[in-house]
Amino acid sequence: MGLIREPKNVDFSTKSQPWTEEELSDFRELMKQMKSENEKKKGRTANSKTGIKQPA
pLDDT tens digits for 6-28? Predict the structure, then answer.
């Protein structure tokens, strides 16, 4: 397996910058919403780890 070269004028290196408190709180709220939506789609309760649907 050979080396893969970066295309010209493209830099794949990244520089991480810490998130501000506002960005972090927005991200956490977004993750809560996404997890909630995914649980609803799967028909599970938030506490269910087994994947078995619970009767309504």
Answer: 788 877 777 788 899 999 999 99
Locate 54 and state its tokens. Answer: 């619970």
Nearest Cα to Cα of residue 42 among 53, 55, 33: 53
Angle at 9 between CA 4 and CA 15, to 5 degrees: 80
pTM: 0.47
pLDDT in tens, 33-47: 999 998 888 875 555
* Cβ atoms of residues 18 and 9 within 8 Å: no
Q: Is 32 helix (H, G, I), strand (E, B) or coil?
A: helix
